[in-house]
Amino acid sequence: MTARSPISNLPTHEVTNVPPILGDQDLWGVDKPLQEGLAREGAGWAMQEVADFARKAGAEEVMEWANQANRYPPEMKAFDRNGMRVNQVTFHPAYHSLMALAIENDLPSFAWNNPRPGNHVAHGALSYLLNQIEGGVLCPMAMSYAVVPALKATPEIADVWIPRLLRTDYDPRDIPAAEKKSITMGMFMTEKQGGSDVRANATTARPEGAATGPGAPYLLTGHKFFCSAPMSDAFLSLAYTENGLSCFLLPRWRPDGGRNGLYIQRLKDKLGNKSNASSEMELVDCWGLMLGEEGRGVRTIIEMVQGTRYYCAIGSASLMRQALTQALHHTSHRSAFQKKLIQQPLMQNVLSDLALESEAATALFLRLGRAIGAAETDPAEAALARIGTAIGKYWICKRTPGFVYEAMECHGGPGYIEESILPRLYREAPVNSIWEGSGNVICLDVLRALYRDEGALPAFLQEIEQARGGNSLLDAHLDSLKAMVWESGNFEAKARRITEMMALAWQAALLVQHAPEAVSDAFCASRLGNHWSGAYGTLADTADFNSILERAGAPM
Ligand SMILES: Cc1cc2nc3c(=O)[nH]c(=O)nc-3n(C[C@H](O)[C@H](O)[C@H](O)COP(=O)(O)OP(=O)(O)OC[C@H]3O[C@@H](n4cnc5c(N)ncnc54)[C@H](O)[C@@H]3O)c2cc1C
User: Residue 240 — φ and ψ, nearest 5°?
Assistant: First the structure.
């Protein structure tokens, strides 16, 4: 292709072989695994809404907001001009445009506002679409979605706070929650001396008055080392009372109309996720309401963490899909050695391998969404949701940094340059594996579910055994997995191996049942075969590259 514009048409040379700017993206149209998965997992009723949102999120203007929101990151504004402490964070207008897009399209609350089967699947799909363009706003969306089940631990708190979370008029004002059109919520658990090990928390809480226990007011003092989205209207946090580690709801403003004792110390200078503010926070007699039972704070807040972990899996699947779209676009328009890159056999192998990984990740998070939605009424789905969230978070997030890097390399040099957006996706890629429980901790959680929750293994096996007979490699893998689960040995040391095998079994089972043979055969032959190193582009030369790439939306 020859790109001719007054600028490119310089006297020194004619510009050729340069891919056109992608422009508005058809995030829905290119994504067959998403379309099929939505229908399969019970969210066919939301198809139109998801497709409409895909069009909005894929607009070039939204990509430009994302670029600006990352180029001009949030700044801390600790004091007002009179020197009064305000603990605010100021954001570029582009960030507010992104937040408005998300909240006005019901992103944090879609599942709760649509209580019917498939609601969490559609919710996940909406989040997956926006995250392709910008990951920073997904953090406050994730926490505002995930906090709802935790709030239910104390009905009088739920009755006040949940309706505020379900409204869809974006309102960034720093005023008391009761006066706002909509709110967002965050979560402070991590402290300097302990993140994974929250029982090492040192923050303390004492009753404000005579009342104690769930719903009673307390004053918290301590520090929290990682507090993302600190502009949120309220936060869940953990602190010790004399009866143990307990969960509290801390509003930004006290009921007497004053600012609460939340003091931002500084904003973190992060590798990626730049548009989203993450802070360190000092709590000084910070007013809060006890949520859930005293001394059972971990149990209360874990209800929220399950939801944010689901978001980690969605977010990483989404980064994969956008990186794949970019790589397919570039290689379809760029030639080297007399052929389009996408027609070069080795590039076909790399792109096909990426497409398989992306489809497997999408299928898994959508299936997980169905289990989460059905958990309330179906014990087997509840058990699958419990163990499946950990499996999905670990594996999808773990596969993403290498994936994005490989998609970057498909672009050659331009992929390394900021304007390609690949560097932004690349910087975003590791965080979903680290926060909300880093890789090892998540695998230990898989073990906990596997060996302590008696429903988890049967539910998982019932899920994957449905694919038995569809692929001989998968059948053999299922047998090895079952043997490994019961093999004696140092279980903690092999927790990653077990989790990886479970994740691959689940992804393969989904693809064998629901994807075209070209996809499932190549997935099983590589991931479950004997020679898989994990590097992309190592499929057998007999894989049906054209079918895989066409399904992935390649403009062939
Ligand atoms: C950008 C960003 C934003 C964040 N925002 C928030 C937030 O809003 N709220 C919040 O509460 N937290 C937040 N976090 C914190 C995050 O959740 C923690 O960093 C994470 O849970 C790990 O805790 P840690 O940093 O204390 O690491 P550690 O607990 O010290 O763990 C370090 C490493 O050791 C591993 N490990 C721990 N225990 C074991 C074990 N028993 N066996 C083997 N390996 C083990 C972990 O997997 C990890 O790889 C954020 C983090 C980041 C990076």
Answer: -85, 130
Pocket test for ligand 1, best of 147, 190, 442 (most atoms within 8 A of CB): 190
Give CA angle at 145 (246, 366), nearest 5°: 120
- The Cα 239–Cα 222 span in angstroms is 8
Q: Which residue has the tokens 């307990």?
A: 246
Residue 8's pLDDT is 59
Does ligand 1 have an atom closer than 6 angstroms to the CB of 434?
A: yes
From 215, 217, 295, select the one nearest 260 (Cα to Cα): 217
Q: Tokens for 357?
A: 């990984």
Residue 247 burial by Cβ neighbours in a 10 Å radius (0-12, 13-18, 19+): buried
* Ligand 1 proximity of 448 Cβ (cutoff 6 Å): no
Residues with Cβ within 8 Å of 328's Cβ and at least 6 positions away in sequence, in order, are: 342, 351, 549, 552, 553, 554, 555
CA 68 to chain centre: 21
Regarding the beta carbon of 3 and ligand 1, being less than 6 Å apart is answered no
Q: State the DSSP code for 231.
A: T
Strand partners, 51: none
All domains of the chain in start order, with CATH: 183-298 (2.40.110.20), 299-551 (1.20.140.10)
| pLDDT over threshold 90, residue 1 | no
Q: d(Cα 97, Cα 211) in Å, to the nearest integer?
A: 43
Say if ligand 1 is within 6 A of residue 193 CB: no
- Counting runs of H as helices and runs of E as strands, what totals does the chain give? 19, 11
Enumerate the β-bridge partners of residue 259: 253
Length of the chain: 556
Ordered DSSP codes for 239-269: EEETTEEEEEEEESB-TTSSBPSEEEEEE--
Cβ–ligand 1 contact at 394 (below 6 Å): no
Q: Is the CB–ligand 1 distance for residue 278 below 6 Å? A: yes
Please state, in angstroms and rounded to a whole number, the distance separating the CA atoms of residues 511 and 517: 8
Q: Is 222 in the pocket of ligand 1 (CB under 6 A)?
A: no
**pLDDT tens per residue across span 242-261:** 999 999 999 999 999 999 99
Q: How confident is the model at residue 517 (pLDDT cuts 50, 70, 90)?
A: very high
Amino acid letter for position 553: G
141-169 pLDDT, tens digit each:
999 999 999 999 999 999 999 999 999 99
User: Residue 228 Cα, ligand 1 centroid: separation in angstroms?
Assistant: 13
Tens of pLDDT, residue by residue over 360-401, are 999 999 999 999 999 999 999 999 999 999 999 999 999 999
**φ and ψ of 33, to 5 deg:** -60, -35
**How many other CB atoms are found less than 10 A from the CB of residue 42?**
20
297, HSE (Cβ side, Cα atoms, 13 Å): 29
433/403 Cα distance (integer angstroms): 14
Which is it for strands 217-228 and 262-267: parallel, antiparallel or unpaired?
A: unpaired
